[in-house]
Design brief:
It is a single chain. The chain has 83 residues and is α+β, with helices and mostly antiparallel strands. The chain has two helices and five strands. Strands 1-5-4-3-2 form a five-stranded mixed beta sheet. Strand 2 and strand 3 form a beta hairpin. The protein is globular.
Length: 83
């Protein structure tokens, strides 16, 4: 099982979402503890990062296999999180 750490930026983005979307993303973050590779690996300048789709929202994260930590970098609307 992996630990999940959420960056300040991701916390701020989650705070701005409505309650239903926030709960959906929270469920996904819990799933990442069990299997962090459920997301899609990203490419180009986002290499070594993963994206998990939740409707119109995305959770962007990196995996540290050595320390068994998943770091959530961003969580928000798909048009904004890849910046």
């Amino acid at each position: 099982m992996y630990k999940v750490k959420i960056t300040f930026k991701a916390k701020k983005e989650l705070k701005n979402l409505n309650k239903l979307d926030r709960l959906s993303i929270a469920e996904i973050i819990e799933e990442l503890k069990e299997d962090p590779k459920i997301g899609k690996p990203l490419s180009r300048e986002l290499i070594r990062k993963f994206s998990y789709r939740v409707g119109a929202y995305r959770v962007i994260y990196i995996i540290n296999h050595q320390d068994k930590i998943v770091i959530v970098l961003s969580a928000g609307h798909r048009g904004l999180v890849y910046n």
